[in-house]
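Thread: Modeling a multi-component assembly for a lab meeting

Hi all, long-time lurker, first post. My supervisor asked me to bring a structural picture of a complex we are working on to next week's group meeting, and I have zero experience with this. I have the sequence lines for every component (596 residues in total). Could someone generate the structure of the whole assembly? Inputs are pasted exactly as I received them:
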Amino acid sequence: MKPGIYFRITWALAVHTWREGMRKKTLLGFLLLSILVIFGSNVVATVMPEMPGATTVASDMGTNLIKDICITAISIFGALITVYVSATVLPSEIENRVVYTTLTKPISRFQYLLGKFLGAQLLIIMNLVLMGLLFFVALYFREGVPPTLLIWSVLLTYFEFLIVSALTFAVSATASSSVLPIIAGLFIYLTGQLTEYLRGVVERASIAETFADRLVGTIAQGLYYILPNLQSFSIRTDVVYGSVNDPLIIDYLPNLLSYGLLYALAGFFLAYGAYRYKEV
Amino acid sequence: MATVIETENLCKTYEGTVRSLDVTALNNLSISVEEGEIFAYLGPNGSGKTTTVKLLLGLIFPTKGTMRVLGRSDIGAPDVKRRIGYLPEGAYYPDFLRGEEVLKYYGQLYGLYGKDLRRRIDATIELVGMEKARKRLIRNYSKGMRQRIGLAQALISDPQLLILDEPTTGLDPIARKEIRDVIVRLRDEGKTILLSSHELLEVEMISNRVAILFEGDLKTIGTVEELLALRETVIRVRPESDTAIADLRAAGLEPEDAVNGLHEVRVPSEIPLYEALDKCRNAKVQIDSIAPRRETLEELFIRTVGAASVEKEVHA
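Re: Modeling a multi-component assembly
Sure thing. I ran the full set together rather than chain by chain. Output:
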């Protein structure tokens, strides 16, 4: 098959997946809630009269709180959307038997997975951009300067979601219903946020004397190297406590993005390994 | 004539959690489907029809045996699937799409674009008689319309081999006839059709060859003419006396209850016709008509499946 045709077919699968996803009520619910939180927190802060005698410090604290709420809303609802989309995109095709019509068309299983994965990414990106855009506009009006740091924050958050999405997708490739992949996706997201703590466990275990403690330390070290460190993608402190148009200061940015891409590739190929000979 | 589908000792076992829970869905199936024929693949629910179809399409993998589709053994390869159209039973199509959008999407998966795609959409929509409803949303389609659009998506690439799973289920008699006519027309154009259906009357009308499966075993295979051989003669008689019917029964014939004063007497092919006519004359009945009667596919199906069930019970 010519590369151009291969890409067009894959893109048709991706766009179809995106169009189907756009009609899922759960997804729209998450998006609506996040928009409500971002919009609501800004409106409340604007409408509420400033307390008489309030200092600049107090006003800054209010702004920081709003930024914190919005960043948290994007992270939480974005993660929920990511997990939901990535966990359901394959099993729902088996549940409603569409897979029989699609997989019997002249496409390979790799191409099918690639199309579905790209479609899921379109949905995740679209939701993230919508939430980010709303927050961007709100911050712009509040601060009077374009919050460029927020763009970096959204980009890095996407890479964080890309990892969660790929690993959840891998689990969903083994499943025929969405329940297990959703649970696994949430677990991946939560443990990914806690990877940094594992390093502390390893350090504490290294000075321990009992065998059990050392064993825990070894397991923690293994998990630390296997599990993705999602905290590396967070620049929440910079966005919340810094100036919104500060330049991004991460020396290891290319490495960080490569790290995200590598995890995503690993997740996708794990999905392919599981789906290649899956009986549907 | 080329062989389009060929299976040899094809087996499929679905593994349970323990070996005793394994289910044999297909057992040493050896069949061949020739180019340009309608091959009816019949059997009660759970007999292995869908399993065979899934194997032929590369959706599942055989436990044992070999198969070739369109001369290729790499089942499931895009090159092979390009020449196959498949209509699954009870297929779902996204209800937010219009009829022609469904065809556009599936056409794109065949690598069709631009003018070629539009031409194929128009041709298939015309073939299945959906011109008026092509721009309507699928959610507003009746069951028959969905089935037609399903058939259209199976035909979008102008395939050599069509695999149709229950194509007329749930359709009204007119729609059923129209779909049936489309299938026959496709056969006449040289396409090969593997037809799985429970509508035995229709299958009998249009099929060239028939195979009947029971619990994974092939029980019967052959042309419709071979399988539905002349099995009995029906003599319609009008009794001339009150005792005539009782006399017929006493002579070993089994007249059925009267309809408009006429009784049907079925004479199996083992009994010579002249002997049956002698018995009718002796019983003082007036012979209204004598007609040969061929077994129907439904009767063959029930007889075959019934015998297989009895055989299974005996072995159990």
